[in-house]
Amino acid sequence: MAKNSATFVCQSCGAVYNRWKGKCEACGGWNTVVEETGGAHPMAGPVATRPSRAKGRIFPLEGLTGEIKEAPRTAAGMPELDRVTGGGFVKGSVILIGGDPGIGKSTLLMQASAALAKGGHRVAYISGEEAVAQVRLRAERLGLADAPVELAAETNVEDIIATLSQGRPPALAVIDSIQTMWTETVESAPGTVTQVRGSAQALIRFAKTSGTAVILVGHVTKDGQIAGPRVVEHMVDAVVSFEGDQGHHFRILRAVKNRFGPTDEIGVFEMSDKGLREVSNPSALFLAGRDLAAPGTAVFAGMEGTRPLLVEIQALVAPSPLGTPRRAVVGWDSNRLAMVVAVLEAHAGLRLGMHDIYLNVAGGLRITEPAADLAAAAALVSSLSGSPLSSDAVYFGEIGLSGSIRPVAQAPARLKEAAKLGFTRAVSPSSRDKADQPGLSVGSIGHITDMVANIAAGSPRRKAVAGRREG
């Protein structure tokens, strides 16, 4: 009998060592190397049953031209979820979804499973973290107890595959979560790198052979990354993140990787006492309740994939009693804020070095595109001067290091969304692809100093000085 050899595997990146190390040399993580007993490789079982052959099988090679078939999809019945997946679940695909604890992953998947099951499809929900009674309690709270969803609490991958193989193949199988699964071909504890990789590989093989769409729920680390080896993200067909702040009731479903659809689409949901409610017009929801007369607020016309989105950017600039002023950012890149502040100081003559700066994207949304530079700069100048911006104006544009305002993509879609919500003015860089919108006047600016001069002209201090001069 062969003796099992002990190996040391990094739980963050999957690097293997022959002895313990305090710091992983591959990813730089501390205290992530854990001893695992070397057992059979996850592929040892299936490979051992194959007949050996002296030479490989010759397969045909085809060219780029030929018949193109669209991948068959099964619509989930939830438009926001179908938007992110590219029109529905592709048969035989595997989706890895991650998110913070308590963000609503299980609620979303329960609603999607119930919608598919009510449409006549076979759906299986396998829970490795909760008992069957707990899942039923959640379904009853959501009003989905009457949905014909097949439910089980199991963690053994071989038993799960054998059970799902009985009868007609399910249209959808939800595994909650992959970190709790274990396979008999690997001798290590559940949740380790080897077990997660082996369990995911077995479930992916089942999905490809049966045509069942499989959704794997993954835990996330403190950095927001899906826990486990990164190789699992390469093995699956799509990686989806469920984002949001538990202090807000908005939730964003975003595709990070998708082999059968776009990766720049988002789905917007609102958490309620009856579960997640789809938001068809997120711009009106993000702008609800904003203070129109307060300085330091600007409306940004952004894009999330093909969907235009209007959000409010709030800024507060206050004198700092500290030697090193604070820079606090929520929902935007802090490095981007530092660049905008440097440009305002160098080219617009503003003195922000002795001020605390706080920037917030209202609603818990996170903005990543550089088109938000102009809106953030407008909010900063408005807060510093005490001059409120026009409540019927939107801002978008990228700021260069020279102070120039550079054009951004999809300007017509941004202007169309602003006109639909009743805005009458748009401040943006000059561009050739702008489309005229009825009732919307577009003010093009070429340098950051033009915007600062326009905002400073409406400052209460300047108006008071002008009034004393006239008197």
TrEMBL record:
InterPro entries: AAA+_ATPase (IPR003593), DNA_repair_RadA (IPR004504), P-loop_NTPase (IPR027417), RecA_ATP-bd (IPR020588), Ribosomal_Su5_D2-typ_SF (IPR020568), Ribsml_uS5_D2-typ_fold_subgr (IPR014721), Rubredoxin_2 (IPR041166). ATP binds at residues 99-106. PROSITE patterns: RECA_2. Gene3D superfamilies: 3.30.230.10, P-loop containing nucleotide triphosphate hydrolases. GO terms for molecular function: ATP binding; ATP-dependent DNA damage sensor activity; damaged DNA binding; hydrolase activity; zinc ion binding. One of its GO terms (biological process) is recombinational repair. Residues 356-471 are annotated as: Lon-protease-like. The keyword ATP-binding applies. Pfam families: AAA_25 (PF13481), ChlI (PF13541), Zn_ribbon_LapB (PF18073). One of its GO terms (cellular component) is cytosol. A motif (RadA KNRFG motif) lies at residues 257-261. Keywords: ATP-binding, DNA damage, DNA repair, DNA-binding, Hydrolase, Metal-binding, Nucleotide-binding, Stress response, Zinc, Zinc-finger. DNA-dependent ATPase involved in processing of recombination intermediates, plays a role in repairing DNA breaks. Stimulates the branch migration of RecA-mediated strand transfer reactions, allowing the 3' invading strand to extend heteroduplex DNA faster. Binds ssDNA in the presence of ADP but not other nucleotides, has ATPase activity that is stimulated by ssDNA and various branched DNA structures, but inhibited by SSB. Does not have RecA's homology-searching function. PANTHER family: DNA REPAIR PROTEIN RADA (PTHR32472), DNA REPAIR PROTEIN RADA-LIKE PROTEIN (PTHR32472:SF10). Belongs to the RecA family. RadA subfamily. The middle region has homology to RecA with ATPase motifs including the RadA KNRFG motif, while the C-terminus is homologous to Lon protease. This is DNA repair protein RadA. The gene is radA.
